[in-house]
Amino acid sequence: MADTASIMKLREQTGAGILECKSALDEVKGDFEKALEIIKKKGIAKAAKKEQRTTSEGRIGTYIHTNGKLGVMVELNCETDFVAKNDVFQQLLKDICMQVAATKPMAIKREDIPASVIEEQKKLFMEETKGKPANIMEKIIAGKLDSFYKEKCLLEQPFIKDSARTIQDLLVANIAKIGENIKINRFVRFEVGEC
């Protein structure tokens, strides 16, 4: 039998309903980590079903750092204006603005990074691994490129408020919580002295 504290903690971390959290905890006899995995898988499935739905509504969020030298704008889209006004959606938008301000992503996803930038990174990584056998060099370059994506692609970055989750995980949890498709459409980050 799942205890109330575990149910509430699971609900807080996943955004799933109380009954869904209780059911997952009961299914795994109170093992929190296993219940978390069950809820995440269900959330991913829910998000995947909604992924193709049109997101023509939304809001633009902003963040200006206290020193006035850093500013961010993010367009976060959803399916309905009703959801765009929702407190959960608004908090997600604020969190994403803070993420962009803190981490300087280059793009939303891997496919958005220009091929020329990727080629330049590969050249740098080749220089760093010079002299290694070709098969090992390939693996090292692939690993370094993967790390580059995790640093520069917003969806792959660890969430600044919870490094165990990525921004993609955060989106999926909010899609499951809200019940609508949500997409980060674009962002811009300004910092005094940067071009």
Q: What key attributes describe this structure?
A:
globular, 8 helices, three-stranded antiparallel sheet, Tetrahydropterin Synthase, Chain A, Helicase, Ruva Protein, domain 3, two-stranded antiparallel ribbon
Give a nutshell description of this structure.
With 195 residues, the protein is an alpha+beta fold. Helices cover 54% and strands 17% of the residues.
Description:
The protein is α+β, with helices and mostly antiparallel strands. 54% of the residues lie in helices and 17% in strands. The protein is built from 8 helices and 5 strands, in the order αααββααααββαβ. β3 and β4 form a beta hairpin. α1 packs parallel to α3 and α6 crosses α7. It is globular and about 60 Å long.
Q: Between the first and last Cα atoms, what is the distance in angstroms? A: 57 Å
* Fraction of residues in H or I helices: 40-55%
**Strand order across the biggest sheet?**
1-2-5
Question: How many β-strands, per DSSP?
Answer: 5
Low-confidence stretches: none
**Principal-axes shape call:** globular
